[in-house]
Design brief:
Blueprint (H helix, E strand, L loop, with lengths): L12 E5 L4 E5 H5 L3 E6 L6 H13 L8 E7 L3 H11 L5 E3 L4 H5 L14 E5 L5 E6 L10 H14 L1
Parallel strand pairs: 3-4, 4-5
Antiparallel strand pairs: 1-2, 1-5, 3-6, 6-7
């Protein structure tokens, strides 16, 4: 099953880190506070994923706008996430989907790609509806900065 714009985002609880603490993160808790951006990525420290995660961090949707949360989700373990977050100075939590349960629920699990996960972005509203969806056709293609612009446009349209 593939989650598309307009679908209800599958609920999840995953272990993660903000670069310091390790704890459980739940989608439904975050959507009660506003919008949530989910950034699925292959692995900590891979070149394309590092650029993607840093670019998303740089747009500051979750730093300066209190109604937006963001989670990075990959199959890496929380200890790798913690080091990656510290080295890159990320301002959002990284969550561990080591069993691919969430990536499968969102339809971006792909056993034919090296990491098992296709890079993807989802914007979820307070009703857990997906309002924006993007998935890479090739995980090793360079990160397209236009994707963050489209994400920001989708968020701005929701706020009008």
């Amino acid at each position: 099953m593939r989650i598309e714009t307009g679908d209800v985002a599958p609920a999840f609880t995953l272990r993660g880190t903000d670069g310091q603490r390790l704890r459980q993160y739940t989608l439904s808790e975050s959507t009660t506070e506003g919008y949530v951006i989910l950034s699925f990525y292959m692995n900590d420290f891979s070149p394309v994923c590092s650029e993607q995660m840093c670019d998303l961090d740089d747009i500051g949707l979750f730093r300066f706008e209190g109604d937006v949360s963001m989670f990075g989700i990959s199959p890496d373990y929380v200890y790798s996430h913690r080091e990656f977050s510290r080295q890159k100075g990320l301002a959002f939590p990284l969550l561990s989907d080591t069993k691919f349960e969430v990536s499968k629920a969102y339809g971006i699990y792909d056993e034919d790609v090296e990491s098992g996960v296709r890079r993807a972005l989802f914007l979820v509203d307070g009703d857990r509806r997906v309002r924006y969806r993007w998935a890479a056709s090739d995980n090793w293609d360079a990160w397209d900065h236009g994707t963050t612009e489209k994400l920001k446009e989708a968020l701005d349209e929701l706020r009008e």
